[in-house]
Amino acid sequence: MDKKSYIEIRAQIEQKALSTLSQIGTLDELESWRIDTLGRNGTVTGLLRGISDLPVDGRKEAGSQANSLKDVLTKKYEAYKADIGSSASIRTRNGPSFLDVTLPGRNIALGSLHPTTAAVREICRVFESMGFQTIEGPEVELDTYNFQKLNIPKEHPARDMWNSLWIDRELADGSRPLLLRTHTSPMQIRTMESQPPPVRVVVPGKTYRYEATDATHEWQFCQIEGLAVDKDITFANLKATLEEFAKRIFGDKRKARFRCDFFPFVEPGAEVSIDCFKCEGNGCPVCGNTGWIEIMGAGMVHPKVLAGVGYDPEIYSGFAWGMGAERIAMLKHGIDDIRHFYSNDMKFLKQFS
Ligand code: PHE
User: Fold this and answer.
1) CA-based angle 43:48:52, to the nearest 5?
2) Does residue 43 fall inside a structural domain?
3) DSSP 91
4) Which of 29, 52, 145, 164 is most buried per CB count within 10 Å?
5) Are residues 82 and 119 in the same domain?
6) Do 297 and 177 have their domain in common?
7) What is the distance in A from the centroid of ligand 1 to the CA of 126?
8) Does 318 sit in the ligand 1 pocket, CB within 6 Å?
């Protein structure tokens, strides 16, 4: 063999070895490629042996070329071997990267709505369909809005209905009038002060009370306030609106019950209950054997409140309500403890995703 044909043979061996390597998908195929190429009777080994047939002056260069080919192919072999070993068996077109398209895909963890948020949205949507607009308000409130303008004067015993978390910041006059709102009712005042009637709003938002927590009480929870003010609004409108709400959330068969209750900012005031959806009103643990489940407080806006914001109570009247979003979610889903909502327990939360 002369030097020229030796170089040609080397080039052919290299090209063939590389192109076969690029088709390889499994470790078995790779092993037979190694035997064919680098094995004892392999093409590269043959090439090295062929050096001795060359004229003496060409052997040195041919030897180094054949050895460098052996090195290159050995390195490629090792890279492929590591790659096939670490991934599965189908190779992508360019380069030694392996992808098994038959493996099941990895799930992307998607977040979902917190059950309170889901309840708030569902409730607001029901009222939106009846012409109410959803708005939000501040969680840090002034005493004036949280109490005074709602017909709850300073030192009035009605304040005991709401155990407040006061914010320890003194104003110039020495007063400490800021607190975390104990209910969303201050937004009744803020809304009416900012616009003339008619008003139709729902106000979801966080509320805070200085209370020990138990299965039905949290120190922070979510309320949904509602307010409608216009000419000729009567208690019949209040009843119809809230009954419709109960049906849309808890089912068409629900009946609503209105009983007298006291809230300083409404007159008359009512406690609204629905007949128990679990036992159809016969009595069970969900309704505490009464057949009824209380879902909110409501009433006709007190004339003093209307006058306080500059609405003429002789011309305008309205109704308002306030409900706990968690309570509605608890009833809907049969959740027995409000503390689940704020424990950050993924096992609980994932049930609602
Ligand atoms: N704000 C009252 C509460 O927190 C609920 C309520 C709102 C009652 C509006 C009547 C009218 O208990």
Assistant:
1) 130
2) yes
3) B
4) 145
5) no
6) yes
7) 19
8) no
Confirm or reject: Cβ of 299 under 6 Å from ligand 1.
Answer: yes
**3 state SS of 129:** coil
Q: Distances from the Cα of 210 to the Cαs of 138, 168, 179, in angstroms?
A: 18, 14, 11
Q: What are phi and psi for residue 66, nearest 5 degrees? A: -65, -40
Asked whether residue 180 falls in the same domain as residue 68, the answer is no
pLDDT in tens, the chain (353 residues): 677 778 888 889 999 988 888 888 778 888 899 999 999 998 989 888 888 888 888 888 888 888 999 999 999 888 888 877 665 544 544 555 566 777 888 888 888 999 999 999 999 999 999 999 999 999 999 999 999 999 999 989 888 888 899 998 888 888 889 999 999 999 999 999 999 999 999 999 999 999 898 888 899 999 999 999 999 999 999 999 999 999 999 999 989 999 999 999 999 999 999 998 888 888 888 888 999 999 999 999 999 999 999 999 999 999 999 999 999 999 999 898 999 999 999 999 999 87
Residue 97 within a domain: no
DSSP helix/strand/coil, 132: coil
209: domain CATH number?
Answer: 3.30.930.10
Ligand 1 in reach of 250 Cβ (< 6 A): no
Assess whether 299 and 242 both reside in one domain.
yes
Tokens of 300: 């006709």
CA of 275 to the centre of ligand 1 (A): 21
Residue among 146, 185, 199 whose CB has most ligand 1 atoms within 8 A, to mutate: 185
Partnered with residue 203 across adjacent β-strands are 225
Instruction: Say yes or no: 12 and 66 in one domain.
Output: yes
Residues 154 and 296 in one domain: yes
- Residue-number span of the structural domain to which 37 is assigned: 3-86
The residues carrying an active-site annotation are: 162, 183, 209, 223, 266, 320
C-alpha Rg value of the chain to the nearest Å: 39
Q: Domain boundary residue among 86, 104, 123? A: 86
Q: Are residues 205 and 321 located together in one domain of the fold? A: yes
Asked whether residue 42 falls in the same domain as residue 170, the answer is: no
Is 98 contained in some domain?
A: no
Total structural domains within the chain: 2
Cα–Cα distance between 29 and 17 in angstroms, integer? 13
